[in-house]
């Protein structure tokens, strides 16, 4: 027969942990915020799908903007322009963001690192219309002589072939403006990930005789790989949806070309919507909303790909 004390303990009811009012309020608020995000996302998706149906079912000969061509033939050049401009911006911004973040986190003196980090963060506060004005009126004029030099000396490369735009307002200029716009978010994320590298990992590499660069290559980069990919994908998502800056810089033509120096520029989807929505009517509005749905799906696919890459790399991260 078990002791009385053990029997009493076995029969005693299990008490639930006491929850304070603050914990309950916080958990309820967090749950509500998450639900609101899902509701808003579902509402936006439903709106885009419902309003896009007429664009898929309407007669192309009687629909504004389609001009007798099927919807997919109409939207394809804009999808190309969106991806082309965003990829160029990402290729330019990624090494710059990694280099700046690495300098701030591991090379710069503390005071200089704080000041430089503050300046980089301030770039995110500049409105996109200001970037557009700067790109169209100032940056394009600065780049135009450089474009002429590229065409004269590297014109054998298909990207730099063709007639050079006399204004400098090309897809390359728009992409460089996008690169400047996405630089703050990519730098901020990469910098924070670099700073979270375990100090013991860095000290162990240095103790084994590694130089600072070898330590960064062996200890910091493996740990921060997932964070660097996340920063790049967030920057790509920002570039995919940017409207005003690209609209103000580009002389949009809707062409499909890989040449980046001439006036016959591809047009991203956001710029096409901004340029044409004011004069759209009837089924033309539905056509533009349908192109917005395509952009929504492209952005969703990019984010899903980023999540898959981060999760796949996590098990190989130096953090493990």
Automatic annotation (TrEMBL):
GO terms for biological process: phosphate ion transport. One of its GO terms (cellular component) is plasma membrane. Residues 79-306 form the ABC transmembrane type-1 domain. The chain crosses the membrane at residues 24-50, 74-103, 115-134, 171-190, 243-261, 285-306. It is a multi-pass membrane protein. This is Phosphate transport system permease protein. Gene3D superfamilies: MetI-like (1.10.3720.10). It comes from Microbacterium oleivorans. One of its GO terms (molecular function) is phosphate transmembrane transporter activity. Keywords: Cell membrane, Membrane, Phosphate transport, Transmembrane, Transmembrane helix, Transport. Belongs to the binding-protein-dependent transport system permease family. CysTW subfamily. Part of the binding-protein-dependent transport system for phosphate; probably responsible for the translocation of the substrate across the membrane. Its main location: membrane. Signal peptide: none annotated. It is found in: Cell membrane.
């Amino acid at each position: 027969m078990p002791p009385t004390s053990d029997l009493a303990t076995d029969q005693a009811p299990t008490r639930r942990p006491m929850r304070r009012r603050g914990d309950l309020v916080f958990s309820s608020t967090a749950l509500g915020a998450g639900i609101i995000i899902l509701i808003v996302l579902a509402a936006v998706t439903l709106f885009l799908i419902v309003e896009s149906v007429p664009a898929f079912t309407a007669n192309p000969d009687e629909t504004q903007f389609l001009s007798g061509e099927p919807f997919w033939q109409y939207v394809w050049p804009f999808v190309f322009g969106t991806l082309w401009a965003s990829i160029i911006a990402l290729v330019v911004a990624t090494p710059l963001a990694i280099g700046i973040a690495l300098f701030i986190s591991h090379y710069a003196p503390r005071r200089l690192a704080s000041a430089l980090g503050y300046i980089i963060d301030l770039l995110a506060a500049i409105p996109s219309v200001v970037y557009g004005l700067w790109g169209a009126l100032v940056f394009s004029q600065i780049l135009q002589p450089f474009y002429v030099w590229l065409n004269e000396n590297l014109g054998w490369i298909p990207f730099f072939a063709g007639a050079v735009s006399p204004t400098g307002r090309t897809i390359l200029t728009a992409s460089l403006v996008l690169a400047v716009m996405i630089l703050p978010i990519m730098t901020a994320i990469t910098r924070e990930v670099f700073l979270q590298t375990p100090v013991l990992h860095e000290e162990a590499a240095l103790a084994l005789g590694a130089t600072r660069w070898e330590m960064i290559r062996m200890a910091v980069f493996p740990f921060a790989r997932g964070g660097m990919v996340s920063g790049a994908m967030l920057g790509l998502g920002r570039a995919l949806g940017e409207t005003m800056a690209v609209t103000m810089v580009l002389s949009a033509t809707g062409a499909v070309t890989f040449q980046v120096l001439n006036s016959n520029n591809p047009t991203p989807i956001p710029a096409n919507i901004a340029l044409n929505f004011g004069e759209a009517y009837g089924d033309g509005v539905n056509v533009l909303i349908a192109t917005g749905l395509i952009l929504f799906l492209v952005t969703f696919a990019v984010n899903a790909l980023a999540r898959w890459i981060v999760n796949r790399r996590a098990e190989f991260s130096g953090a493990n």
